[in-house]
Amino acid sequence: MQTRRIRWHIAVFLAPAVLVYTAVMIFPLFNTLRLALFTEVDQTRIYVGLQNFRTLFFDPIWSEQFWNALGNNFWFFLIHMLVQNPIGIALAALLSHPRLRFAALYRSAIFIPTILSFVIVGFAWKLILSPLWGIAPSMLDAVGLKSLFAPWLGKEEYALTTLALVSVWQFVGIPMMLIYAALLSIPEEILEAGEIDGITGASAFWKIKLPLIIPSIGIISILTFVGNFNAFDLIYVSQGALAGPDFSTDILGTFMYRTFFGFQLQLGDPHMGSAIAGAMFAIILIGVCIYLFGIQTRMRRYQL
Amino acid sequence: MTRKVLSLALMSTALVTSAYAQEATLTIESWRNDDLALWQEKIIPAFEAEHPDIKVIFSPSAPAEYNAVLNSKLEAGSAGDLITCRPFDASLALYEDGHLTDLSDLDAMGNFSDVAKSAWQTDDGSASFCVPMASVIHGFIYNKDAFNELGIEVPTTEAEFFAALDKIKEDGTYIPMAMGTNDQWEAATMGYNNIGPNYWKGEEGRQALIKGEQKLTDPQWVAPYATLAKWADYLGDGYEAQTYPDSQNLFTLGRAAVYPAGSWEISGFNTQADFEMGAFKPPVQNAGDTCYISDHTDIGIGMNAASENQEAARTFLAWVASPEFASIFGNALPGFFPLSSTPVELEDPLAKEIVGWREECESTIRSTYQILSRGTPNLENETWGASVAAIKGAETPEALGQQLQDGLASWYAPHQ
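ok -> structure tokens follow
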């Protein structure tokens, strides 16, 4: 009879990754959640249970800001879903067209903004849209549409949408690349079989390719969701921590930053900041769970 | 064996440190990274010439990050010996947490007036924890060439002020006033707190507000918003998206005639602008009214309580409080006016003009800085938003006053 040997090598090979991940991800995450349960009174930290969350959701001063940030976050996400992902899919469909010339050039050109720093993107677009030195007003003037120009980043009603579109411009390359890869993996035989049955051109896309890339679209949606609800950089770079004008571009990330680290005369409050971070974590967790259990399991998959 | 090696190592480090202790090195934490050259080339050499046994290192971090960086350094015990102090609550919190030392017993503190020290004292005034270094004064800087060209006299009353702006606007060569609302703080700092003291009568109103005797809904606190609302017509096209550097550039490029300013702009403007500049103080309502200026205590310097070089640090602070430092600092950084009671002779004409207002007008500090921005919602941040809303005409001045008052009353006992 043979005794089962303990396979040490599994533990040894897992250890570095597990240790690093625990130290830099799991521990800080749970420590932040723990911090949210405390508050500071007279320089001593005391345990208050869920009081911080009660303040965040029900105290009118905090809840107004929280719901405003959450609403803005949903709008930010919606713009990405309605603009970024359809455009990404359309670009991928065009790029995968076998007779398109310079496909590699277009692919790189569209993907390049993705690798730029937020600081550069935020600053460049601020200059482009600047009513004083920007090229946007003069370009509109050149085609006789100067009247359409407005200082978009400074107007409550447009600022968030403008920034969402800037972010779309930056990141449209990611859905494009993922969908492009998915489209390339569709075997020629299926398309040819479709052609024999009279399905060509646009209807080949809608009836054959699209159902086959639905799982990739699902992944892109969830990546967009997580990315958007963690977003902070672009807003901070272009509008500052107060996310002006009048908090119209305030999202959960900037709200958390302002609360946690303080701003100008407002001193930082790590405990309320952690409570907001906890709420962000919960929102993202719920969103991802809805997707994983509600949508992905029901998605139809085709064996290729 | 290992223990022996360890104790030897410890002993040798102890020896090394004590050998160094005779020549103390002081590190200064600051957010003024713009002033690095000034400290390295002028201030530190002047100090080291007098005190050859003390070395000083000026180590600034980015202004927006300073508070957060400093706090984490202090918590970790790695902060420098000397701490540049933000005014009011940020530094008060550091003192209360035991990071800053009480300096009330420093003889040189006698060189400063009570108003100068007020920004770095406990609420009851019993302990002072930073040596006041400089203040900034608000007013308007204008393009002298433009005023001469259009034949405009320097305005002293509000009516003259708006008449001048009308004239500039009518002519069309210049944007009447360079200010934007994108960064928000400009509207509050260069707008509301610039013209406001003339309405609420400086210290009188500010103290009454702190005591709860006046409310933000009172006419003297609401009227500045009504005046700000009139500014919108004179700001450039698209001022809603105009940032602070945009405004500075508009003015220094000679495209705008008037710049609502803080005196800290002087050195930058001197190098950028190639026209002659002048300054006028916030206009009063009627000719002959007493004028009030915002002479805001902005920078102080204190000692890290955990510093190992307490004696050397005290020597340095005493020197900072001396007239010699005031004269070097005031002249090297025109626009940051020394706070010491002995007057300093300034060379820069624009700085001299502005600091001269101290003789003619009553000084006060920004209304929201002391005590009133301690709670949530933060009155200073709310004032930014309110000033922008006033300029844009998004809300009536009365509604803004009510909103700020409600916010303040929600946490500040004297207003409840």
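The interface with chain B takes residues 43, 61-62, 126, 129-133, 137, 150-156, 239-240, 242, 244-247, 261-268 of chain A (CB under 8 Å).
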